[in-house]
Write a structure and sequence with these properties.
The chain has 326 residues and is an alpha/beta fold. It has a single domain, classed as Metallo-beta-lactamase, Chain A, CATH 3.60.15. Helices cover 17% and strands 28% of the residues. The strands form 4 sheets. An 8-stranded mixed sheet has the order 3-21-2-6-7-8-9-12. Strands 1, 13, 14, 17, 18, 19 and 20 form a 7-stranded mixed sheet that branches. Strand 7, helix 1 and strand 8 form a beta-alpha-beta unit. It is globular. 47% of the residues are buried.
Length: 326
């Protein structure tokens, strides 16, 4: 494959708009800028408090969404990467940070699972008719279900193509890597699977040709890449169903850039099925020597703590409304 490195940028900011955790006691440190917690947030009416107000807390959910701001040569671009698990959680958290959906120039959806796509509903209502581009992999539309031994299979919600087109979004389907915004951001497309231990999501099936067939690999899983001048790659994942080590390997392969400055996003190591591969994954990530490591969403308690212990200088706790300056 021909190498296609994104243009170097001056800086990248990743703001966590949707995630599984919010910790109001975290303080700003290193690249992590945390929201201030104080009386300015006492603005939610209630009849059960003496002064009639409580703190305006962000929406927290099992899902992921992030705003990416890229700065290069005095220009600024804003891209939304995933939109969360509920119709209004993402736009509500944008409101809390005084961020306008109207400033977004493009949307990248990492894959078709609803905990990364449902916020398109609230965005569409907030934006009104729009021709905003939405980049996806062609298998994004697959109907899927989970089928585990001893349990009745259940189907997962699937994004409606008609609804997105009806709202005016420009849907762009690409299997291979594709550029955004002056060549500053690279969408990986389908990620090569090269590790022996990252085997996708057991128990998932897809409806193809009228039949439910195994679909553990989730081929629509893709990541977003940026190249920060004199620092290296910033790699943003949604769930990392491709395997986070596969994602980093592939990012280095297609860009020709070996330095890994930051890896942010879901690594999908939560749950008993993934416990056995946590040690191998942690060691492989450590070998890349990332400057910043922010595991989010579906990474899971055990893996997050293993990564924090193994890479204490690089690790930063994710929390909704945190901005990472990279």
């Amino acid at each position: 494959m021909q190498q296609i490195a994104p243009e170097p940028v001056d800086s990248v900011e990743v703001t966590i708009l949707v995630d599984n955790l919010f910790d109001g006691l975290l303080v700003s440190e290193g690249p992590a800028k945390r929201p201030s917690f104080g009386p300015h947030l006492l603005n939610v009416p209630t009849t059960f408090m003496e002064d009639g107000l409580v703190f305006d807390q962000p929406v927290v959910q099992h899902g992921f969404g992030a705003l990416v701001v890229v700065r290069k040569d005095g220009r600024e671009h804003r891209v939304l990467f995933d939109t969360g698990a509920t119709p209004d959680g993402l736009v509500e958290n944008m409101r809390r940070m005084d961020l306008s959906p109207g400033d977004i120039e493009a949307i990248v959806l990492s894959h078709g699972h609803s905990d990364h796509t449902t916020g398109m509903d609230g965005l569409a209502r907030d934006l009104g008719p729009t021709d905003l581009p939405v980049l996806i992999h062609p298998e994004f539309w697959n109907r899927r279900r989970l089928a585990f031994p001893g349990r009745e299979p259940f189907e997962l919600p699937t994004t409606s193509k008609g609804a997105l087109e009806g709202a005016g979004f420009e849907i762009i389907e690409e299997e291979r890597p594709s550029f955004l915004l002056d060549g500053s951001l690279l969408v990986t497309g389908e990620v090569d699977r090269t590790t022996p231990f990252e085997r996708g999501m057991p128990g998932q099936q897809a409806l193809k040709g009228g039949e439910w067939v195994p679909d553990p690999l989730i081929l629509d899983d893709q990541a977003l890449l940026m190249n920060v001048r004199d620092k290296g790659l910033v790699i943003l994942t949604g769930c990392g169903h491709s395997g986070i080590v596969n994602v980093v390997r592939y990012a280095r392969k297609i860009t020709g850039i070996s330095e890994v400055h930051a890896v942010v996003g879901g690594f999908h190591l939560g749950g008993p099925a993934f416990d056995p591969i946590i040690p191998e994954t942690v060691e492989a990530l450590a070998a890349f020597d990332p400057g910043v490591l922010v595991p989010t969403h579906c990474t899971g308690f055990k893996a997050i703590h293993a990564l924090a212990a193994r890479l204490p200088d690089a690790f930063y706790q994710s929390s909704v409304l945190t901005t990472f300056a990279l």
